[in-house]
Amino acid sequence: MNLIVLGPPGAGKSTQAQRLEADRALKHLSTEKILRTEMASGSELGDKLKTVMDADKPVPDGVMVAMIAARIGAPDCAEGFVLNGFPRTVAQAEALDVMFEEHEISLDHVIQIVVPEDAMVEKISGRMVCDQCGINYHAFLDPPHFDDECDDCGPTKFTRRPEDSADSVRARMTAYEEETAPLLPYYQEREVLTDVDGMTSPDEIAKQIEDLLNAA
User: How far apart are CA 2 and CA 174, in angstroms?
Assistant: First the structure.
């Protein structure tokens, strides 16, 4: 079974992909990890990718699709895969479909984890990390028992990443909607798109996905 998981930053795509890998032996293919692995390999392609990314330029779609094709052909993808992080545009989806056809690969489901913008801002902007031991907390959903104290190591400072600020989250949500929204009718026309409610717990999201796959 071969799946694509869509959703805005912080929606829990990686969490669900990892669960599918553990529960169904579907290999979680993160395009970020594919790129990192290639750059670390010392290959000529890896060096070119590093140059492109250091210059903050996008990796050409053809290169990305070719790397995905090579990864899908590996033995650990024999039971199927969960693709996370690609495609992000209709052009990428079309290129991916061409590759799937060439390799006789079926795309069984495209799962979109749906989370409203205001909820996503609250979810991400509340993240904070203990400076001493690195434990993660959430200012609203999972705060420490006492202000300025880590439950594990006592008095401390908590850090929030700049990219987790409310303004940054809203900007990322806007970019996602503008870039990825056209993908939805594209996959709806192919009758492979299903929405799941991302406002529930990770366990409940996983159950929604499991019910979908069991019904197939």
Answer: 28
Per-residue pLDDT of 54-100, as tens digits, reads 888 889 999 999 999 999 999 999 999 999 989 999 999 999 999 99
Choose, from 19, 27, 71, 88, the residue flagged as catalytic.
Answer: 88
Phi, psi angles (nearest 5°) of residue 55: -85, 5
Q: Which residue in 157, 161, 190, 207 is the catalytic one?
A: 161
* Beta-bridge partner residues of 158: 130
Answer whether residue 80 is part of any domain: yes
Residues 13, 27, 71, 123: which is the catalytic one?
A: 13
Which among 33, 48, 170, 172 is annotated as catalytic? 172
Question: Is the peptide bond prior to 87 cis by the omega test (within 30 degrees of 0)?
Answer: yes
CATH for 93: 3.40.50.300
Active site residue 13: yes
Give domain status of residue 151, yes or no. Answer: no
Domain boundaries, position 32: 2-116+180-215
| Contact (Cβ atoms closer than 8 angstroms) between residue 95 and residue 62 | yes
Residue 88 is among the residues annotated as catalytic for this protein: yes
**Rg (the chain; Cα; Å):** 19
pTM: 0.82
Q: Which residues pair with 28 in a beta bridge?
A: 82
Total number of domains constituting the chain: 1
Instruction: Give catalytic status of residue 19 as yes or no.
Output: no
